[in-house]
């Protein structure tokens, strides 16, 4: 499982607001069942390590800080909303009456196939009306499809549709797509280079696996890039020519 979104700067700011040292944070986390050393707390704040989901939830409690603040994102995907409510996959799956592997697959593939009862239970667990949940699920599926088309094809033609769907500035989308396209091209060129060079099958499988993992978290990576650009509310700019 990939690590959760996490902001070292927000974590440090939250700790300083409490007046606690990294040692005190580690001590308080231990009281809640998560045992670790102060050096790990410091590593989180330096950005050299990222907490697990459970560590993130407990850190938020210890720092009296909302989890989304430490995540430094506006929850958009099912996973984001789940973590914002401090729910593990296991706990949420049990709460909505779904097998863990079924829910985990739905979250990873961004395809919701739950029945009406499970959908309503999920909406309640995430603190939103069922109608809002259905909109989120629909948007995630469309966003995933558009992003895949953008990185694999002519990305500039997808700026406006993605900006409209995501309701963000076109310049933010342009920046995100440029980075994503560069990363995708780099992975593809690595694979082709090793293929032409006749590299071992294990090497090709490893790169292919990296590509699959990269594509799997494409929406999350897109939002991370958008959130790291200018967040000021400005009128949407004209599409670049």
UniProtKB/TrEMBL annotation:
InterPro entries: Cro/C1-type_HTH, Lambda_DNA-bd_dom_sf. Residues 78-133 form the HTH cro/C1-type domain. One of its GO terms (molecular function) is DNA binding. This is Helix-turn-helix domain-containing protein. It comes from Streptomyces sp. NBC_00119. The lineage of its organism: Bacteria, Bacillati, Actinomycetota, Actinomycetes, Kitasatosporales.
